[in-house]
Amino acid sequence: MSEEFKTYSPEHTHENFAEKYGRNVRIVNYWNRHAQKESAEGYDPATGQISKSGTSKQGFIDSIQFGKKIKASKQGVLRTYVSNIYRTTETAEGILRGYKERNPGAVTRKIVEQERLFNPDIYPNEFWELYNKKFGENKNQLMVEKGQDPADFDKLSPNEQADIAETAEEPVIKEWLRKGSELNTVFDPAEVAKDFGRLFYFHNVRIPGLVYSGSEIDLMHVSHHAVMEPILTSGVLIREKDGKRITSLEDIERSLYLLEGWKSITEVDADGKIKLIIELRGDKYNVDMEMLKEMGKPQKQIVRIKED
Which long-range contacts (CB under 8 A, 24 or more apart) does 246-255 make? Predict the structure, then answer.
């Protein structure tokens, strides 16, 4: 890591830390869903996990175009974080390629895996089974309405698959996030919000205090459907224009589209005071910092035991 990105280490005195770190800092975190997949099937019953499909050719092209829209911060991208499912890495590589085309000479450091961008241990298998059952029923119905055999879904192009899959999945994720629903009863999305909240707290509250004063840095994160929506609808966001606390997908229109992004902007002033703003779909949101702080506390790791 270069000198300008070096963070706090134990050999620094408290006085030195207060002088050199965490003042007049601006960090922009970009949070994106991955790009279009080669196969839009959501769940692999053979493994009990979500699909491992990579991005389609169009998905990679779209990722590059997305990166071209980002104006780099003064010191570029410190880190890019992805899940352990390779399509997030492919998406990140495309975004960074576009980012560098838009910002020649911008620094883009290494891509690293971050478990909480998709933590499979917290999702019980019975949840995925029910989720995919409902998704599959919706998908098959849409195929029939289009005059197509549901068995031919894999024969469709990635674009055609994505159109059907996105439409089929939306009512399922809405049901999951609705308290008292069948899916919500099987697995409470608040568990995902808390797990993701620890990651969100670290990158928006902890990291700004650990970088050199005067730093202006971008951080990239690429994740999945059903990972970021729980925190977005947890009540931690309060829309600036009307004071509305966000507690449902309807409050923000719908779930995240393929490659759709939102960003969190942390600014720390000369006295170390933090201001955190979220930008999503043209609206700005304040953050309930006490609620976020509670999410950021260390939590007991949830481990699901898979039966043979």
Answer: 246/285, 248/177, 248/178, 249/173, 249/174, 249/177, 250/174, 252/280, 252/281, 253/281, 254/170, 254/174, 255/169, 255/170, 255/173, 255/174, 255/225, 255/229
pTM, two decimal places:
0.89
The CA distance from 305 to 290, in Å, is 33
Across the range 294-303, mean pLDDT stands at 66
Residue pair 19/37 in contact by the 8 Å Cβ criterion: no
Distance CA 137, CA 131 (A): 10
Give the Cα separation of 172 and 160 in Å (integer): 19
Comparing CA positions, the residue from 305, 216, 286, 261 lying closest to residue 65 is 261
Per-residue pLDDT tens over the stretch 255-289: 999 999 999 999 999 999 999 999 999 999 999 99
CATH number of the domain located at residue range(s) 3-122+189-295 in this protein: 3.40.50.1240
β-pair type (261-268, 274-280)? antiparallel
Q: Is 227 exposed, middle or buried (0-12, 13-18, 19+ CB in 10 A)?
A: buried
Neighbour count for residue 241 (Cβ, 10 Å): 8
Q: Where are the domains of the chain?
A: 3-122+189-295
pLDDT at 39: 85
